[in-house]
Design goal:
This protein is of the alpha/beta class and 273 residues long. The protein is 37% helix and 23% strand. It is built from eight helices and 14 strands. The strands form three sheets. A five-stranded parallel β-sheet has the order 2-1-3-4-5, sandwiched between helices. α1 crosses α5, α6 packs across α7 and α6 crosses α8. The longest helix has 21 residues. It is elongated. The termini are far apart.
């Protein structure tokens, strides 16, 4: 691995010599430490490398590629994972992102774009580490644990993927305010949302399903059609109608100041479950 004090550390799992040659030259100019691997290594070895990010060509992974990607993303929640591979289908890209990859870039691609996406991933990881210092959040029956990248109900994990957790954390920190889709995408994915991209809606739906399974007597995420989403825990009474709203608050740390300004009035925007 090339060395430079304070540089980001990257591993590239790829055998495309032309792509590697051009990418590594650009990485050196950008000040990244990097190591090229021609075959996948055990996730435990990646832990020992103390990486900030990894670029993976799924063609190198073989028949166990999806399992490997899921294990890497699951065992290294702070590692930025960018898949950079040849022709792929929409189903393959969606599967990779849902398994935990942060981004998917199709070859042929410009190395500057790959590096820019890596930088965006690393920025998100650093913001997540800063937020992990604030301690757990209690919202309804949820305990949101930034230090574990996970949410719990009654001590049981909701088994959120890393991106689902980042989405939940961002919404919960909004303290009842409506967050626009574009702003959510920028904060969670790290770059501007392309026209027609429905990633936010897809991940909100998946997150809602897990919240409903783990905490069926509460509604947490509300849709503001044409705008975005709001996190505001409400109990469901009788046939599922909302009851009393409960604002998410820190589980410990009485010194945290309340959010400035009034919460968004309930009548200001139409609500939907």
């Amino acid at each position: 691995m090339t060395t430079q004090q304070g540089a980001n550390r990257l591993a590239v799992i790829d055998t495309d010599s032309g792509f590697i040659r051009v990418l590594t030259k650009r990485l050196e100019v950008a000040g990244w430490q990097h190591r090229v691997l021609s075959t996948p290594v055990a996730p435990e070895e990646l832990v020992a490398m103390k990486l900030n990010a990894i670029v993976i060509d799924t063609a190198v992974l073989g028949t166990d590629g999806w399992d490997y990607l899921e294990r890497v993303c699951g065992m290294l929640p702070e590692l930025g994972v960018v898949v950079c591979t040849g022709q792929s289908t929409v189903a393959q890209r969606v599967r990779g992102l849902r398994l935990g990859a942060d981004d998917w870039v199709g070859k042929p691609c410009h190395p500057e774009e790959v590096i820019a996406r890596l930088e965006a991933v690393v920025r998100r990881r650093r913001r997540s580490r800063v937020r992990s210092d604030v301690g757990p959040l209690i919202a309804g029956e949820l305990e949101i644990r930034p230090d574990q990248f996970q949410a719990f109900v009654g001590g049981g994990s909701l088994e959120l993927t890393r991106r689902e957790f980042e989405l939940l954390q961002l919404l919960a920190e909004g303290k009842g305010n409506v967050l626009e889709r574009e702003a959510i995408y920028q904060r969670v994915w790290g770059y501007s949302m392309a026209h027609g991209d429905r990633s936010v809606d897809v991940f909100v739906r998946k997150l809602r399903q897990k919240l409903e399974r783990g905490s069926p007597s509460w509604r947490y995420i509300h849709t503001h059609f044409g705008i975005g989403y709001r996190f505001d825990p409400e109990t469901l009474v009788g046939d599922g109608e909302p009851g009393t709203a409960v604002t998410s608050v820190p589980a410990v740390d009485d010194d945290v100041a309340p959010a400035e300004g009034p919460a968004t009035p309930a009548a200001a925007e139409p609500r939907a479950g």
